[in-house]
Amino acid sequence: MRFNSNVKNAPRNGFSLLELVVVLAVLSVLTHLAVRELGAMHEGKLVQAADRQLDAIREASAAFLSDVGRLPRLTAETNRAGEVTYTLAELWKKPASLDNRTLVERDGATLAVGWNGPYLRLPVGRGRLRDPWGNPIEREDAAGLPRLLASVDSIVTNVCHYGPKGQPGERRTVSLLPEAGLSARLSLTVDAGDYDGELVCRWLGPFENTVTGGTATVLSGAQVTFDGLTPGTKAVVVSKSAPAAGGIARRIVRLVEVAPGVNQVQVKIP
């Protein structure tokens, strides 16, 4: 019987302990990198969701402004523990101070005035806004970082989030004020043809449960400028009284959408 003396050259059927340790170490590193990458992707998705939430609040506030004539105010609410918080509840729950939207007639113009919400819908079962990390938007966090910024009359001007770690450096702020501020300008030019008498020009717009506006008198072809309007739907009313020679009185009513900044409107009276 012959024995193979070259046993050390025979093929192996397994791994050495060192090789197993190396393989496990590589797998551990790859798993750690994959988990970290997935975690970063998940946090990135949450940040995107938080950004979309701020944009939704801004859009809801713009619609509220157009209907009511002002931005939403902070609303004081008391929870079951007796804790008072100041929320944006005017966007999803009609406040007692506002009427439901109704049509109001003034100077020949008809405008829709009042609350027409909800402008923002909360998830089922929730009574307050929370960011994607579960933080109430209406409250400061543990570090005292505010998420709602308001003016002296409790009008909310800015909403922000602080990212997953709640750090000032991760803060993203959305202004609820239009880009040119709350003050818009309406420049009105009236063409009344051969009529050389005075023209009475008015703008009318909703404010809370009433209609507000301004009046100016000009001659045909002249321009009148109204400052301090809030953005949103407004009515422009231009009228002329009957000329002394026996003409007839005329009135033109036009609904215009006033945007932030300067708005040019031309009206022609036949």
Describe the structure.
The protein is α+β, with helices and mostly antiparallel strands and 270 residues long. The protein has two domains: 40-175, Glycoprotein, Type 4 Pilin; 184-268, Carboxypeptidase-like, regulatory domain (Immunoglobulin-like, Sandwich). The protein has one helix and 14 strands, in the order αββββββββββββββ. The strands form five sheets. The protein has a four-stranded antiparallel sheet with strand order 10-9-12-13. The chain starts with 16 loop residues before the first helix and ends with a strand.
First and last CA, distance: 126 Å
CATH class of the largest domain: Alpha Beta
Outline type: elongated
Class computed from helices, strands and strand pairing: alpha+beta
* Mean pLDDT score: 82
> How would a crystallographer describe the biggest sheet?
4 strands, antiparallel
Gyration radius over CA: 32 Å
Which CATH architecture of the largest domain would you pick?
2-Layer Sandwich
CATH topology of the largest domain: Glycoprotein, Type 4 Pilin
Order of helices and strands: HEEEEEEEEEEEEEE
Number of domains: 2
For the secondary structure, the number of strands is: 14
Question: Roughly what fraction of the amino acids lie in strands?
Answer: 25-35%
> Strand order within the widest sheet?
10-9-12-13
- H/I helix tally: 1
